[in-house]
Amino acid sequence: MQPSNHSAIASFPVRRMDFNFAQSRKYWFADDPFMSHFMSNLSSLFPYGEQFFVDSVRAWRQHVNDPQLQKDISAFIGQEAMHSKEHKAYNNYAAEHGIDLQRLELRVKALLEWSKHWSSKKQQLASTCALEHFTATMAEQLLKREDLTTQMNDPKLYQLWMWHAIEENEHKAVAYDTYKAIGGGYFTRIWAMVIVTISFLWVVGGFQLHLMRKDGQLFNWRSWGKGLSILLGPRHGFLTRLIKPYLAYYRPDFHPLQYDTETLVQHWRKRLGLATAEQV
Ligand SMILES: [Fe+2]
Ligand SMILES: [Fe+2]
């Protein structure tokens, strides 16, 4: 949630998007199987993952009294629903290249449904806060790392990921503020982060092996080497750089807006020609 002195509208807009991926290439990231599959891997998490975020915030919204937060919850739901829809469109299109992301989507759905059976509504909201911290910090990296994003050689997929990255930063505090507003505590928040981290690494690691194997790339060591150095390189690795903001989440006084990305987001909104809340 960005600071706003205009109480009648949400702090950020819901933008209607409708991408067409018909011209998209199979290896659209750095002409490389590993990195292209890694992004598809993340994309397979979104259709049901973002629905889980929406459901877990919606389940508590009647307990939120702050009118500004109510507006922002509505905009959050709208943005996440649009992300689900557009990633679903990409995932369906990936099948044209023989990449079966629908099967992975269904595994995510089954995992989330199973987790709902043994967790409370508050724990589900805490899990959403943890996953929103993942998406916000990964998105921040994407907005900052032109050395990586210039390797996206498909204009539609570039726009999809950068638009999503902007909006993840615009709404990054909504689930967290909702959790605080309903009296969510430190222990549940941290315990959820531990569970979410283990699950996320397990799922993404498993999906990456699956996608590489199905594409006949399991023993393409060159692609593994290139991809793993992009993700885990000691100084500039995409995931390596997430360690510091990840650990910050464990501080009792953590809040998502302690990572101020407003200037960065403004820059990218202009660059992609996206409207602000006041313009929509
Ligand atoms: Fe999203
Ligand atoms: Fe999000």
Question: How would you characterize this protein structure?
Answer:
It is a single chain. The radius of gyration is 18 Å and the shape is globular. The two termini are 17 Å apart. The N terminus is likely disordered. It is built from 11 helices and no strands. The longest helix is centred in the last third of the chain and has 29 residues. The chain is mainly alpha-helical and 280 residues long. The protein has one domain.
The tally of helices reads 11
Output the helix-strand order.
HHHHHHHHHHH
The residue ranges in which pLDDT falls below 50 over 5 or more consecutive positions are: 1-6
How many discrete domains?
Answer: 1
Q: What are the main properties of this structure?
A:
280 residues, mainly alpha, 11 helices, 65% helix, 0% strand, binds fe (ii) ion
Topology:
Layout: H1 33-58, H2 67-94, H3 101-118, H4 121-144, H5 146-149, H6 155-170, H7 174-181, H8 186-214, H9 221-232, H10 243-248, H11 262-272
Protein name: Metal-dependent hydrolase
Transmembrane segments: 190-212
Organism: Pseudomonas segetis
Describe the structure concisely.
The chain is mostly helical and 280 residues long. It has helices at 33-58, 67-94, 101-118, 121-144, 146-149, 155-170, 174-181, 186-214, 221-232, 243-248, 262-272. It is globular, with a radius of gyration of 18 Å.
